[in-house]
Amino acid sequence: IYRVYTIFILFIMLFIEFLLHQILRVVAKDEVQLSLIRELEDLDFWRGVTDVHSPVDVRVPSHSLQSVKVYLETLDIEYSVMIEDLQVMLDEEQEEMDSALRVVEPRDTNSFDYSRYHTLQEIYEFQDMLVAENPSLVSKIVIGQSYQGRPINVLKFSTGGTKRPAIWIDTGIHSREWVTQASGTWFAKKIVTDYGKDPALTAILNNMDIFLEIVTNPDGFYYTHSSNRMWRKTRKPNRGSNCVGVDPNRNWDAGFGAPGASNNPCSETYRGPSAHSESEVRSIVDFVKSHRNFKAFVSIHSYSQMLLYPYGYTRTPAKDQAELHSLARKAISDLATLYGTRYRYGSIINTIYQASGGTIDWTYNQGIKYSYTFELRDTGRYGFILPANQIIPTAKETWLALMAIMDHTNKNPY
Amino acid sequence: MATGDLNPNHYPAQRAAKVVQHYLNTRHGSPFRLFGLHSVENGSAENVNDTGRKYQLGLTVHEIISNTTLNCTAEVIFPDGAEQQPPVVQVSCEDLSKSNATAEEEAFYQQYKSNQSLVSAQNLPDSYGHIDPDKKPFWHLGIVASSFVMLNESNENTLYNMAQVANITQLATENEQLKFDSHILLHDMVSQEILHWKLLFTWSPAEGVEVQDMEQLRRCNH
């Protein structure tokens, strides 16, 4: 009976082993600090010591927390608490996996259920399946990492060539806008299905590449599943504040600091400490700048049913306003042919509100003329929590508008 | 501030029209009757000395449950002043008084008036946009009750929609009305904030929704 007792105790200890363990992210400012961090070699490194300025993630057991933090603070080594309570996170993941097991995993992208909302893990797996099934058309590029270290994946659809003129589409930059990531998933499948069958899309892909980033804010998206369905921003802590996160659609270097964003970290429209401070934004900036050949850029949000073009930070009309306006009119009238869904359109600042540091203002100023933002269904009845049975209708009608934009881009090279 | 004729597709007229939606729901909304803004056809705005900003609007609203569209004209005055005051609304719509919902309202009322246990529901809709069919009238009631708050809190720099009924719980009463305690999430499109409100309200087919107490819940953690 003694044996059973011991095993029981061991079992309990194993179970609560990670209670109040924290994951600290430590950043060395110089070589000296780097070697001091290496001195903590007894600890469990999740992301090992590489070089100065690269984050090091270390799991610190609860009994060592105090002394490790004092050690770092005395030596003026910067750290932040990445995961406050590892046990809680593991419990949540276990719960998630348990519930995932109850759902049958799709074997391929044909058995993937596009009419349901999916988890981050399911979407990552979908991306890999799509690439595996269409290796000559689709590839996955990891353009960076989120704050919490999740991969930022972009699907590239290409029929060849080198640095062909390209179209960018992103969904899910605001994590609570779930119909967008769901639509992005549907668009990915639509492209591989229609290439070689639909003349318009085939013509586009024979000349241009399409880049699709489905989960643009993976940390936020994970958080909407695990903790708060209404989370919008990134999940990066803010120095000197209890409030977490930066609005990734106010963090771009276009009118940064101007009216139309908040400088309060607790605000949903907090612009961040500096332009491109968020890795989720910086990754796209770096990618676009090094590519140098994007001709259209579409960033997808919900809700309001609008198609918007620059600018948000100023009332000065965009140079190409007339063309952008008439293309928007064409796109939304195509959209309406399917279910009669009514969209409004115009510049951001006139149609919805003044907003500074926005994505498409930056892309437009980079010279990407066909820069648009969508606000998908609905107009407020369900808002962010749109019923799943509206995913496919939304994706289908939006696709018609996207095709109008891509088609025009392809036929009007510049 | 935009003055004179307004572009009906731009936000100033749209925000004023949304206020009309909230007003209609407070006056005519029920578990089986709910209004949504459909379109703004025309609008104009002017400054009124010592009063505030006055909007005149031509708009259409959608009665969601019967799926009918009504033409309306409305006047919305946003009062001057540093502190938030409710806008003043006058509206007239064709066929407004006609309601097809009276039988359903009566049946619903009787069901929950005489029920042995008090009903309670959470997360309407849930994260996936789902609402059980028998809970939908409570979602509608939540929208109607929150329209009182959204109306009170509206100004030219807000655009409110109800995001979710976090909780709605029936309370026992001695009198005719059904009574509910609720925790409701509102979304303001302009600030993008989610606001939490506690609402204590009653409803009956005869009296409609009456709010007895409303309180904004300030959130600490973020």
UniProtKB/TrEMBL annotation, chain A:
One of its GO terms (biological process) is proteolysis. Gene3D superfamilies: Metallocarboxypeptidase-like, Zn peptidases. Its main location: secreted. Residues 116-409 form the Peptidase M14 domain. The chain crosses the membrane at residues 6-28. GO terms for cellular component: extracellular space. The keyword Membrane applies. Pfam families: Peptidase_M14, Propep_M14. Its cofactor is Zn(2+). It catalyses: Release of a C-terminal amino acid, but little or no action with -Asp, -Glu, -Arg, -Lys or -Pro. The active site is at E375. Keywords: Carboxypeptidase, Disulfide bond, Hydrolase, Membrane, Metal-binding, Metalloprotease, Protease, Secreted, Signal, Transmembrane, Transmembrane helix, Zinc, Zymogen. GO terms for molecular function: metallocarboxypeptidase activity; zinc ion binding. It is found in: Secreted. PROSITE patterns: CARBOXYPEPT_ZN_1 (PS00132), CARBOXYPEPT_ZN_2 (PS00133), PEPTIDASE_M14 (PS52035). Belongs to the peptidase M14 family. This is Carboxypeptidase A1. It comes from Gouania willdenowi (Blunt-snouted clingfish). The gene is cpa5.
